[in-house]
Design brief:
It is a single chain. A 3-stranded antiparallel beta sheet has the order 1-3-2. β2 and β3 (109-117) form a beta hairpin. The chain has helices spanning 24-51, 59-69, 74-81, 85-97, 119-139, 145-163; strands at 72-73, 101-106, 109-117. The chain contains 6 helices and 3 strands, in the order ααβααββαα.
């Protein structure tokens, strides 16, 4: 519960005062990231359903990764997304059944396979991503393009820092 909330939301041992000036920026960051992530999860579910009504929300990120980077090994996808082999295998099986991805032999290692978007998968993902970009353009139309570029740069830095 945030400061000033009624109803005993104060944690045991929590100070009565707001955090020190040095902590306030991090408190604001935590609050804004919480809102952004909650909205992003909801949006990801909507985008997944736009790609295919039976597509799991979590699998949308796999499709975007394949769209951006091309074919990859399942282990590389699992590492990037941050899930185990079993979870990745289950998600890829579901995507194959929907006709959105296909596996092909890895020319560098005949024992391994690469996962790639099918033509249908590429078409569907491209359509949804283009609609999302158009939404961002409309929502941020009042922003200066340099501000949009700065936001993208800062988010990239944040993602790199979290990745390490």
């Amino acid at each position: 519960m945030h400061e000033g909330a009624k109803g005993g939301g104060r944690r045991e041992g929590a100070p009565d005062a707001l955090p020190s000036g040095a902590d306030r920026p991090f408190l604001a960051l935590e609050r804004e990231l919480t809102v952004l992530l909650r909205r992003a999860r909801a949006s990801q579910g909507e985008m997944a359903r736009e790609v295919h009504p039976d597509l799991e929300s979590a699998a949308y990120g796999l499709l975007v990764r394949l769209d951006e980077c091309g074919r990859q090994r399942a282990t590389a996808l699992a590492g990037y997304i941050g899930v185990g082999k079993a979870t990745m295998s289950r998600q890829l099986r579901a995507l194959e059944e929907l006709g959105l991805v296909a596996r092909e032999p890895d020319p560098a290692d005949g024992r391994a396979s690469l996962v790639a978007l099918t033509d249908e998968g590429r078409r569907r993902v491209g359509r949804v991503r283009e609609a999302r970009r158009e939404r961002y353009v409309r929502q941020l139309a009042h922003w200066d393009r340099r501000e949009v570029a700065e936001l993208a740069r800062l988010l990239h830095e944040l993602n790199r820092g979290v990745e390490k």
